[in-house]
Amino acid sequence: MIDTNSPIETVVATIARTASEIHQGLVGRRVTTDDENPSGETQFKADLFADELLADRLSSVDGVAQYASEERAEIVDCGGGTLAVAADPVDGTSNLPSNNTMGTVFGIYDAPLPAPGTALVAAGYVLYGPITTMMVARDGTVTEYELAGGERTVVRDDVTIPDDPAVYGFGGRVPTWTDDFREFVRTIEMDEALGLELHYSGAMINDINQVLTHGGIFAYPALEDSPEGKLRLQFEGNPIGYIIETAGGRSSDGSTSLLEVEPTDLHDRVPLHVGSTELIDRLEGTLAADSG
Ligand code: AHM
Ligand code: MG
């Protein structure tokens, strides 16, 4: 039973309401600025707008001590409490100009940032698709909501990854993948019994939602010129790992659960592989065999 008065639930409810404002605020903000985030990526007006809104709304929630995001260098000190919220305010920004699905990702840690995924007490994401949905993992269960006017309606309780994997999608340009990863992709693509179909959108959260709905695997792997990949541990890797593992799947940096990776810096990147257990096992098997 979820305690609707808990600080964690207040954070989730606050993000649900703020997401509605972020969604409406995308209008007129699908353009780049002259600014870069701490990872060196050009920021869109929407990135800065969503980050400011979340910082403002979350810093006034009782129990939230810190707010951090991939769009700002420093942690915002929010006062008392022990919870820290880490967010990717707009995940899949490059889908904005073409008006394709993207989202907002968050992790709620009961520890000062940067923290390992084992310190998460909840995580979730909002998907701005044909309708706006929210997926939240906490207390060992994943719940999907529809959002309208900031209000949440449960549409699926106890979301679990389907047993029979159906889709796959991998980020990064193929020539920049490592030989080991390319070998893994080739074997699952050619596996007729597995029968996977490519579903890749360019917005992690959209691809993750497909994995949770249909079963399968998503990865943004280590690249030859970027051994830690692209996605950030605090804002993307840990929250997604937590959601997928709570839904009965697995997450991996290539050899171990994302939730076990020790952060060294707030903006650390991590190779991210998540999805159905059998596929992540197979991925780790291929990477271990080829490196050994
Ligand atoms: P963002 O949060 O700055 O939009 O970056 C994250 C996105 C993911 O949604 C997606 O999986 C990946 O970056 C795509 O990367 P690339 O732009 O290299 O194709
Ligand atoms: Mg972003």
Please provide a written account of the structure:
It is a single chain. By secondary structure, this protein is of the alpha+beta class. The protein has two domains: 7-156, Fructose-1,6-Bisphosphatase, subunit A, domain 1 (Fructose-1,6-Bisphosphatase, Chain A, domain 1), CATH 3.30.540; 167-291, D-Maltodextrin-Binding Protein, domain 2. It has helices at residues 7-25, 45-59, 179-189, 204-214, 233-246, 277-291, and strands at residues 32-36, 42-44, 64-69, 76-77, 83-91, 102-109, 120-128, 132-138, 141-148, 151-156, 167-170, 197-198, 216-220, 250-252, 272-275. The strands form three sheets. The protein has an eight-stranded mixed sheet with strand order 4-3-5-6-7-8-9-10. Strand 7 and strand 8 form a beta hairpin. Helix 1 runs antiparallel to helix 2 (45-59) and helix 3 crosses helix 6. The structure holds 2,5-anhydro-1,6-di-O-phosphono-D-mannitol and magnesium ion. Magnesium ion (MG) binds next to strand 5. Magnesium ion binds next to strand 5.
Strand content: 25-35%
Radius of gyration: 18 Å
With strands numbered from the N-terminus, the spatial order across the biggest sheet is 4-3-5-6-7-8-9-10
CATH topology of the largest domain: Fructose-1,6-Bisphosphatase, Chain A, domain 1
Give the distinct bound molecules: 2,5-anhydro-1,6-di-O-phosphono-D-mannitol, magnesium ion
Number of strands: 15
Q: What is the helix fraction of residues, given as a range? A: 25-40%
CATH superfamily of the largest domain: Fructose-1,6-Bisphosphatase, subunit A, domain 1
**What does the overall shape look like?**
globular
CATH level 1 name of the largest domain: Alpha Beta
Name the assembly state.
Answer: single chain
Number of domains: 2
